[in-house]
Automatic annotation (TrEMBL):
Classification via InterPro entries: Endoribo_LPSP/chorism_mut-like, Flavodoxin/NO_synth, Flavodoxin_CS, Flavoprotein-like_sf, Flavoprotein_WrbA-like, FMN_Rdtase-like_dom, RutC-like_sf
One Pfam family linked to the record: YjgF_endoribonc
Organism: Pedobacter antarcticus 4BY
One annotated GO molecular function: electron transfer activity
Cofactor(s) required for function per UniProt: FMN
Family, similarity comment: Belongs to the WrbA family.
Protein name, per record: Repressor
Listed Gene3D superfamilies: 3.40.50.360, RutC-like
Domain Flavodoxin-like: 10-193
Length: 369
């Protein structure tokens, strides 16, 4: 069964009265077992009414399945006699008990295939297709046979093979039934199911690794990857809030505070160099992000996108490199948030800024609904 086992296990679940479906099931199982690392488990569906001579049947020793074990397998081959162009009542009754499994979506994506035993063959293709309806409602991955092996089997006798699944024409006595050809197609069908089940197992394992990574807070993951630790959000120094949410937008204003002091204070180009101004800009942008985190209740995944950044720079008269400084903030934001960090931008030179900061950034972000 599934848990941490490199072998895949596939249930061959059949309902037979006279043994033909059972013989087809055995051929399906042989095909499964011929696939490296795959093992077939043969079980029959419980009966609504016991057969009179059940103990004399070839399949008497095959255990009955319980409905709750279906999700434990890597794949399921369903086999039934054709009854009036449909699956048998036993099979129908059994599958009708799978409502909880269905609503819990436990069979979703699990490979499944259908084989049958018919008399004349009347309605056998329709029977397989109508069986598929139930599997589709469960979201199972249906594996047909196609024309696999069809041209190699003895064409001098009628054969029950269909592109949807193997079947036997037990009413036709031109050869012993199930015929060698019918059993051969069933074997190929079992092999194809095992192959799909192996693929399903590998995909499930890969998804199990990927999904938590995808669910992880992507902005936090990026911050970690860039070795950036957000500073403590600076407390307001007046009668205002560090952020305000209006509708689904967050408004933030920050200066270059770090541990209660301004990083590289003064006039750019006179008191501080361009490099120092860049450091102050980066610090200011980190402060913006740390306030944004506060605004989202600590969950930066709630941010849909950046909207607008406006940078104010305390510059000497004639200074014209504002864009170079503001790029420091823009690049940092896009590096952390990717495409959703893109924003419109305003950049302004000012003759003085609060606390003698060299930089002030106003930011607007949009939150997810
Ligand atoms: C109630 C009933 C309905 C059947 N309806 C069909 C049918 O629609 N088409 C057909 O080809 N055979 C039909 N058959 C024949 C069986 O499908 C056939 O005998 C089959 O091989 C039995 O499988 P088993 O040996 O596994 O019991 C019917 C048999 C019964 C008892």
């Amino acid at each position: 069964m599934k848990p941490n086992n490199t072998q895949i296990e596939i249930l061959v679940l059949f309902n037979s009265e006279n043994g033909s479906t059972y013989r087809m099931a055995q051929a399906i199982a042989r095909g499964i077992n011929s696939y490296p690392g795959a093992k077939a488990v043969l079980k029959q569906v419980p009966r609504i009414m016991a057969l009179k001579d059940e103990q004399t049947k070839s399949f008497a020793a095959v255990p009955y399945a319980t409905i709750n074990e279906l999700p434990l397998y890597d794949g399921i081959a369903f086999g039934s006699a054709v009854h009036f162009g449909n699956m048998t009542a036993d099979m129908r009754y059994f599958l009708d008990q799978s409502v909880t499994i269905w609503t819990q979506r436990k069979l979703e994506g699990v490979p499944a295939t259908v084989f049958m035993s018919a008399g004349s063959g009347a309605g056998r293709e329709g029977a397989i297709l109508s069986f598929w309806n139930t599997l589709a409602v469960h979201g199972m991955l249906i594996v047909p046979v196609g024309i696999n092996g069809a041209s190699e089997i003895d064409q001098s006798v009628p054969q029950g093979n269909t592109v949807f699944g193997a079947s036997s024409l037990t009413g036709n006595k031109m050869s012993p039934r199930p015929s060698e050809g019918e059993l051969q197609i069933a074997k190929l069908q079992g092999y194809a199911l095992a192959k799909a089940a192996k693929g399903h197992r590998l995909t499930s394992e890969a998804t199990a690794e990927i999904v938590p990574a995808l669910q992880e807070n992507q902005i936090e993951a990026k911050l970690k990857a860039l070795n950036i630790e957000l500073p403590e959000a600076p407390a307001p120094v007046g009668n205002y809030k560090p952020y305000r949410i209006s509708g689904n937008q967050v408004f933030i204003n920050q200066v270059a505070l770090i541990n209660g002091k301004i990083a590289h204070p003064g006039i750019i180009g006179t008191d501080i160099s361009q490099e120092q101004a860049k450091e102050a800009t980066r610090q200011t942008m980190l402060n913006v992000l740390s306030v944004l985190k506060q605004a989202t209740g600590g969950d930066l995944n709630r941010v849909r996108q950046a909207v607008q950044l406006t940078g104010f720079f305390n510059t000497a008269a004639g200074y014209a490199n504002h864009a170079v400084l503001m790029n420091e903030a823009s690049n940092l934001l896009v590096e952390i948030m990717g495409e959703s960090g893109m924003h419109t931008r305003g950049t302004v030179g000012a003759s003085s800024l609060p606390l003698n900061s060299a930089v002030e950034i106003q930011a607007i972000f949009e939150l997810k609904d």
